[in-house]
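Hi there,

I know you've been waiting on this one. I reran it after we fixed the sequence typo, so this is the corrected version. Both the input and the resulting structure follow.
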Amino acid sequence: MTATLPILEFANATFLPGRNTTVRRGTRWHGVAVARLRLGDGRLSAPVGLETELRVFRDIDADALRFEHDPDCRTPQGLLARLRIHYPGFSDDEIVTLCHFHV
């Protein structure tokens, strides 16, 4: 089963101890209950449980980002700048999935 789990990829694979959040464009990750994380050294993590929620990007506040794994993305402005790098053409009226997990 582990081989078939989806893999969350990270441009900056730094994580907080305990709870973490990552924000992904669209709805692909919504409802995914278990995934593996691509770690900074390229290895895959053991399976981790995900809790997901959908939001319109412009409705996200700093409180929702307090556990964002990437320190540069813990404010809406910082996250928007990063999302525009990773998702060219990204706009603040798009739906995103917040994925919460523990490491």
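Quick highlight: The CA atoms of residues 21 and 100 lie 4 Å apart.

Best,
R. S.
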